[in-house]
Write the structure tokens for this entry.
Amino acid sequence: MSPQAVVIDGLRKMFPSPNGLGEFAVIESLSLEIARGNFASIVGPSGCGKSTLLNIIAGIESHDAGQVRIVPQDGTGSNARIGYVFQSPRLLNWLTVEDNVKFGLEAQNIERGCWDERVKKYLDMVGLAGQERNFPLKLSGGMQQRVAIARAFAIEPDILLMDEPFSHLDEITARKMRVDLMHILERARPTILFVTHSLREAVYLSEEVYMMSVKPARIFKHLRVEIPRPREPEDPRLFDLEKNLVKEFFAVLEQDHR
């Protein structure tokens, strides 16, 4: 059994009520474990707390109860390095592509002597060789998101959080980005926690899928996708798995609304 990278046990997150009276639970009694080197997706409807969960793992938001443990990766006890790819690229438009990647390296206190090598390596990996001196606003939406992915990979994270990174793209571009991400993963293998509302995207990309209910969010199903890589988007086994999960998801939604 692979060592764990992320362990969450009994997580609770409270938000103030919209009327200002009291609080309500966004996440309640949520537990999951992600093995090192795995690609795990968390699937749920928009607004159910998926992004909040990633922010808690990243240390951006606090939680009210339970435990979140990021397991040291190298056996030395040092903290795991966490990368984050958001829904939008969040690039600095006044910096060139290469300087956006270097900005991420500087923020993580990566030794300056390796910056040029990493910039070249990871821009090549996402198919942006030759775009180093370009500026974000001159790039397409898909290319901007590639820069964001390169920036996250360049810090060589132990754990990579990806929050619906293709949701703002048109479907043709998003589909190509999913295929490209699969190719990237053949060369780089961080632990990935990927948030999406698309079951199709989850079963295509992931080794594990966690299905999340509506508020208060909880994990109601965990499954392994046993279809070997490389995968084809048109694989009927993926379609059948997605179809079965959709049925199960709607059954849970109906039960929650009774």
About this structure: The radius of gyration is 19 Å. The CA atoms of residues 69 and 148 lie 26 Å apart. The first helix runs from residue 50 to 58. The mean pLDDT is 89.
